[in-house]
User: Fold this.
Amino acid sequence: MNFELQPLPYSKDALAPHIGEQTVAIHYGKHHQGYLTKLEAAIGNTPDANMSLEQLVTDRADASYYNLAAQVWNHSFYWECMSPNGGGEPPAQLAEQLTAQFGSVATFREQFTKAATGQFGSGWAWLVKKADGSLAITSTSNALCPLSDGDTPLLTVDVWEHAYYLDYQNARAAYVETFFDHLINWEFVAAQV
Ligand code: MN3
Assistant:
């Protein structure tokens, strides 16, 4: 088994005050690490242990360990989607693509926010690139990752309560608003297109 917990791209207190050190410490150190530990135990020394994490998520959607593999991948991607000085406006080329697809960057934000706040229970909201090159907003329940549907993830926000409850309690909309205003790493997002 050659999977490793991807290092956080910043220190645990770097997203404060928007996402506090305690949230990141538990979310990364307990939840994310926990999914990886359970994944390793579930796969053991079977041939699948030689696949990459992305291959597991893409090609093993029917595996018993799928939820664990997807949660490891989703969280690594989520951390990269944020930065301490994030938020604000996307780079020009991505802004043009969002405008072409959704009408305006503001409309994109509105629709993505609706997907994030409207996801019932635990899950994720995503901006993805479809196989035909178009952009789309989706939300997924629990662990489901768009890679498994053949879509390319560009941006995600974790809307499981463990992602925001210490900082925002039940106010998921305030967390998503802060995500847009202060946290999104647009350079990373643009590089995924
Ligand atoms: Mn999470």
The pocket of manganese (III) ion is lined by residues 27, 31, 75, 158, 160, 162-163 (CB under 6 Å). The mean pLDDT is 96. Strands lie at 123-129, 135-141, 152-158. The chain has eight helices and three strands.
